[in-house]
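Can't paste images in this forum, so I'm doing it all in text. The chain is below; anyone willing to post the predicted structure tokens underneath?
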Amino acid sequence: MTLTGKKVLLFVDNLYQELEFWYPLLRLREEGASVLVVGAKKGETYTSKLGYPVQSDLAAAEIRQVDFDALVIPGGYAPDLMRRSPEMVDLVRKADGAGKVIAAICHAVWMLASAEVIRGKRVTCFFSIRDDVVHAGGIYRDAEVVVDGNIITSRIPDDLPAFLKAIIGALRN
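Text version of the structure:
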């Protein structure tokens, strides 16, 4: 249990990608981290692209930046809904300002673009939002995982093992 004492926030909204949510949740808990599910509303049930439900533990507006060590954002269509919540976007911005680990996979890089935290940073994402990354000032790389400072990004569910290895490694330091 290498991450005992670490607190990770895992964002959620409707239409999240199942593997990109559940794999980090279970893998980080397996390592001993406390993982809290954060949505726009506390206690809300959100459903995945295939209808799998998950209930949020907290609302983004309840979080203080000192309350956690990392923020993980899954993909799917959910990030487009997440970025409509000013509190969720602001939490990403505050996490970056505090140097917290921020991990985003697939379409979740939209949240990083909306929070304006990727300018000049090397990032990867699902290929269809590459232009969004570039227009937000990010330096696009096509790789299974890209780490630039506190920001960790990956492209697709197949990249999840490398993505989680990078997140766990960052939290161990």
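The first strand starts at residue 7 and ends at 11. The two ends are 14 Å apart (CA to CA).
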